[in-house]
User: Fold this.
Amino acid sequence: MTHILPTQNKKHGFWGTCSGFIKKEQTKAAWEIAFVSIRKIAGFTPLETLALFDSCWGRHIAEEFAEEISADCFKNAFMHKITKDRLYRDYNCYIDPTAYKTDKKSFRYENFIKDLAKLSKTYGITIKSIGGISVHAINDMKDFNGYTMDLESGNILPIWQNKHHT
Assistant:
């Protein structure tokens, strides 16, 4: 059983932000779901988890997931969207800059996904892919020449100047 600490910041952070748009019972349920989920995803101690939730990060997360919290589908959305690397990066940013090592490739991938979502909305095109990414060193990208375009098959493949890339 996960030990869930009570908030020390009822006016701000995750608790304070949630309590601004949902009832106290829903806030308590969202707090417990998020607390247990973060411990499970990142292995944070109860005190580390509390520090993160009571910081500005908690407020940002409550705002990011406001619709899901209100609609009682928070756990699935949170577990789907929050990664270990993101939690480590965020903990380093909001609490202790030297606490956890992070995967810089994962950070680049998350930024790519955000930018790709913007492009999809702009052009009305979405991509369906399973296991379809490769993360490359930035200096390898000098050989990248764009993508193939095959509307019939839906395939999108990178085009490289040198054939050694996959």
